[in-house]
Write a structure and sequence with these properties.
alpha+beta, Muramoyl-pentapeptide Carboxypeptidase, domain 2, four-stranded antiparallel β-sheet, two-stranded antiparallel ribbon, 4-vinyl reductase 4VR domain-containing protein, NO_sig/Golgi_transp_ligand-bd, V4R
Length: 187
């Protein structure tokens, strides 16, 4: 392939920007929903194959999550609304079950079940977490829609570790009075 045949970054970004402004629910972060689903499935397989894939796939998830947050156009929102919006945007409402197990000023613990149904195959116990892409997706999205740039997400339980669910610890640097009885705690 010659250099002339390779599209410029500016052209790709311009095309993706026009696509991501589309209100069609079949697009997520400028990516076709079917491609997003395939990427999510592939990310789990790759991380299950070799943990060296975890960091780059987490970063990809973070970027895509931030792009989806921009599409949502609702800022800032509380954690519960944000998570519901992401699940709805990804077309997973009624397919996966998510719930916040607990929250305090330092963060929250999110539990997700039904992942194997989404992927279409059972995730084997590979003795490590395999949802790094999703952790990055949650992090990028939550940072964008909550306006909390110091927020981070870590997967602490996973089907890849033999659990029946995945859990993500959401770490944050709270402003006084937030999340625990503060303005962002009530939706």
């Amino acid at each position: 392939m010659t250099k002339a045949a390779i599209p410029s970054i500016e052209r790709i970004d311009s095309e993706l920007s026009s696509v991501s402004s589309c209100t069609n629910a079949s697009w997520l972060g400028g990516i076709a929903a079917s491609d997003f689903a395939a990427l999510d499935r592939l990310a789990v397989k790759l991380i299950g194959l070799d943990s060296d894939f975890a960091a780059p796939l987490r970063e990809m998830g973070r970027v895509i999550g931030a792009r989806i947050a921009v599409e949502q156009n609702e800022k800032p929102v509380c954690l519960d609304v944000a998570l519901s919006a992401l699940i709805l945007a990804c077309g997973l409402e009624g397919v996966i079950e998510s719930r916040i197990l607990h929250r305090n000023a330092e963060g929250a613990l999110l539990q997700i079940s039904g992942c194997s149904a989404v992927l279409g195959w059972p995730i084997p116990n590979v003795e490590r977490t395999v949802c790094g892409f999703d952790a990055g997706l949650f992090e990028g999205f939550l940072r964008g829609v909550t306006d909390e740039k110091a927020l981070s997400v870590e997967e602490t339980a996973c089907l890849g570790l033999g659990h029946a669910y995945c859990e993500f610890k959401i770490h944050r640097q709270p402003a006084p009075g937030e999340w625990e009885g503060g303005p962002h705690d009530h939706c």
